[in-house]
Amino acid sequence: MKDIQAKNIKAVLFDVDGTLVDSVDQHAKAWQETFAHFGLNIPFDKVRDQIGKGSEKLIQTLAGEDFSKTHGKEASDFRKNLFAQKYLPHLRAFPCVRELFERVRDSGRKTALATSAVGEELETYLKLTNVEDLVQAQTSADDVKESKPSPDIFQAALDRLKLRGEEAVVVGDTRFDAEAAIKAGATPAGVLCGGFPEEQLRSAGCVEIYRDPADLLQRFDQSRLFFNRQ
Fold this sequence. Notes:
The protein is α/β, with parallel strands linked by helices. Helix content is 47%, strand content 13%. The protein has helices at 24-37, 44-48, 55-63, 65-87, 97-106, 119-129, 152-161, 175-183, 198-204, 213-219, 224-227, and strands at 11-14, 21-22, 92-93, 110-114, 137-139, 168-172, 187-191, 208-210. Strand 4 (110-114), helix 6 (119-129) and strand 5 form a beta-alpha-beta unit. The model has no long low-confidence stretch (mean pLDDT 94).
């Protein structure tokens, strides 16, 4: 990763699941139940490790190419409905999300949401985080051909902001966020609130690691990403 010049950073792109909203375990449970419905017994930890990928890539990794071709769309729809009915109403945002977005705005940067969530799920996330009026762009699975770890979701946000990758920081909780950010030319920073190991995020390329949005807010002024602090 090239040396970061904070003065060049003009936007912060945020993943949502596991980064702004506490939802990783719930997504993993919904996928595990979905696979069980189709006769596949896949351990929770194995499913959880793949959260952050798009549905089609997650299914291919965990259930195989043949299952993906024959049952992928049906399984994805089943999971979507299960998650919406059983888990979505009980989700919560992590503390200080709105305050963090306000701090980013006050530093002169733009913000964007880059999430695979669509429809009711995306609307719920916007309500939970209470940042819609602070966001200059948002992209979802409807806007891209390829899901993470492909860079499409972040590239779409950059395009809407009319920025180059080198002008943005991506904040996410998984290695897939970091890999996608790097492919888009952006600088990845990680948060641990999604439950993924710090060493995994660093190995994927995250240049700074924070506990959660509240920790990033507290240490924002000391970040070399934003202020060239050591």
